[in-house]
Prior knowledge:
The structure is a single chain. A hairpin with a 2-residue loop joins β3 and β4 (68-81). It is elongated, with a radius of gyration of 18 Å. Residues 15-26 have low confidence and may be disordered. It is built from 2 helices and 9 strands. It has a single domain (3-194), classed as Porin (Beta Barrel). The termini are far apart. It is mainly beta.
Amino acid sequence: MRFGTARFALLALVASMAVPGVAAQDAAWSTLRISVAGAESVTRVGMHTWWRPTTGAALRVEAPFEGGFLEAGARFMPLGARTDAVPSYTALLAWAGWGGAWRPVRPVRLSAALRAGMLRMDFAEDIAFAGVRSESELTLGGAARLEIVLSGRLGVFAEAAAERTLTAIEIDQVHASAGLLLRVGAPRWVREVLR
């Protein structure tokens, strides 16, 4: 599937899930969902000719919002050089997003979100042709997620995220992650802001 087609399908999915009355809201404004995960790049083309991604880690916080939910997150992933022509680097993507959720049957929860973020790349050594140690670029994309609630507060999830980093030569990537989900009560000031 082409990246543009995948983005259109994700946008349609988010829109259908985020319509008021369709989006599944957990205890209105009182619950935050905190996720920690291991993350892997499943893309094997383009930039991966030059770099070898290793297992990374991701953190995400979700809060209910009008018509769906808001999310913020970060993913850290080291990439080793496959050749001496390029340096190794670490990638840190920080993002914010908006999406919708649906519960087809308990304890399953499906969700999808559109995301915008900044990808920071910190290189292991100076890049000879640029003379810089780091670079930050805008990244756009989306994610689809499957959650299974194990108890009132604890759950597990799997997620796939498609992203386009807007460098001079745009980079398309797909990441998969899986981990633990914890539902916690939102602080009062957060509930007031979300209302």
